[in-house]
Write a structure and sequence with these properties.
Nucleotidyltransferase, domain 5; homodimer; ATPase_BadF (chains A, B); five-stranded mixed sheet; Euk-type_GlcNAc_Kinase (chains A, B); 44% helix; alpha/beta
Amino acid sequence: MNTSQSDRGGLIAGIDAGGTSTRATLLTTAAECLGYGKSGSGNPTSAGQELAGRSIVDAVAQALAAGGKAIDELDLIVAAVAGHGASGEEGWLLQALRDAGFSGRLVFESDLLALYFSGTAAPDGYAIVSGTGASVIRSEAGRLVGTVDGLGWLLGDRGSGFWIGHRAALAAVEELDGRGAPTALTPAVLEALEIMPSESLGYGRPALLEALIRQIYRGRPVELARLAPLVFAASGDQVARGILTEAGELLAHSFAAAYQGTGPLVVGGSVLAQPGLLIDVFAARVADLDAAVELLPAADGVLGSAVLALRHAGAEVDAAGHARLAESVAAARAR
Amino acid sequence: MNTSQSDRGGLIAGIDAGGTSTRATLLTTAAECLGYGKSGSGNPTSAGQELAGRSIVDAVAQALAAGGKAIDELDLIVAAVAGHGASGEEGWLLQALRDAGFSGRLVFESDLLALYFSGTAAPDGYAIVSGTGASVIRSEAGRLVGTVDGLGWLLGDRGSGFWIGHRAALAAVEELDGRGAPTALTPAVLEALEIMPSESLGYGRPALLEALIRQIYRGRPVELARLAPLVFAASGDQVARGILTEAGELLAHSFAAAYQGTGPLVVGGSVLAQPGLLIDVFAARVADLDAAVELLPAADGVLGSAVLALRHAGAEVDAAGHARLAESVAAARAR
């Protein structure tokens, strides 16, 4: 027997599941946000499916509690999760939600589409995110129809935090190797990686360089993203400025590869949120491509996952509705 | 009580310990090669110290058996091992040799210096190797005094087998992503990585691309070096030709960074041993730098580790002696 929407409470939830934290909104189909919840990592790839499932259940439970509602009143949960656009592997989350008492429908969405709808209600447009990784998506009629980059640190993520941190490491290695220009990044990288000064020579090259190389290979490559803030901090340095300029250009290049005209560009992620040279170069290159492209910042995918949840529940969200929903979600987050 | 050289048999051994195999020569101080032995991986970093120690002991035992000698007749062992130039961590090998009955002296040398002396007797000169990794060393008075690159896949190894294989993977990813030129490398990479064709779309990009990306991240990055032969095989392809040309230029650039005049250039490793575009570009760029630089091929470090062993035993090896030793070692290897 099918349980129709009205048999439960007519309530829906939007989930923005990220690698650091997971956020849930509890919504009416009239686009009112009744509650908000926040928990730990909801990324099944980095945190594992069990922990990610627990985080999502926890965030939903908090949003329900904030709104004074029970989980059996929920008709629909829309979960924006990285890498779960069309994979079909949804059992890990559905089972965790069923165990918690959820009997409604679960829909997965792209985390990047959620970011997109955090910035705009326009069905056609683009989102770019540069955090640890970097990618661009294109939305058409509210659906994700194209992705550029997002290929991970080994194959792409050009202009990402990893890319910037990797370049900082290379700049330090090249200066110590005698091939690169002196740069303020070298002492900054050595300090950040806790490399101790040493005068001895190892194997025909400076011991400091040997120690730096060993320390870098001791970690996971993606951890080089931790060095990105050093590049932003050293923005008076010519080498650092070169890295930030190239990162801005690479991100604009990825956007250009996705661009087919029409629609705004929602901009997210820690790298693009940083004011200064990188975002200025990026914005200038985007304007060179098409001065009509509007850049709209978005801090996270919370609002957009709420928009996606409403759309999946059959409620359209126009520009005015988007603005009202933004206020309602912000109020729930502030409570 | 010190045991002098003459108390034992006055014999010495040279070891060329590589990641795939370990080779030992048994020598008299008169530069005669009495025996040769070969065993498995002797690289303590990749194979582990215990296995590497066993391989080296095994290769020495075979060389002794071939020469009809016992281990207590050995005065000196010179082991050319990657990454063990000046590290001082020699206990792992010394103990294994002591357990096998060796009571003489153990000296570590650079594997790249051994490659160098496989190609020449000149005390001043250069060696370049490009296999999975890539580096250049400079020898002065028979000692390693400078290294360029050899920084590993994440920080360098430019023009190496990893570098070439990584570029092949990028070329395939970029063609599938719609950003790169069509190339014969794409079907070759997909076949080599056993990616099955599929028509469905995943997450706004081709399922074939998604499958390729997943397969690449499933392996260790350095395994991309396995794709390098595809680039050599596709040498009629423009993208492949571009990769091989750039690799040759990068290797020449590393040599130029080490170059201080004087001396031959010994050339080793599977990438530079491959006839065709890459080595031709490399040789042309080296000639542009200094037409007087003589390129001397070396297949491995066996002869050079024998030269280093003789030098550490106090025997000088001049050009004529080097030629005689080469014949003697070749004869022992052929037995």
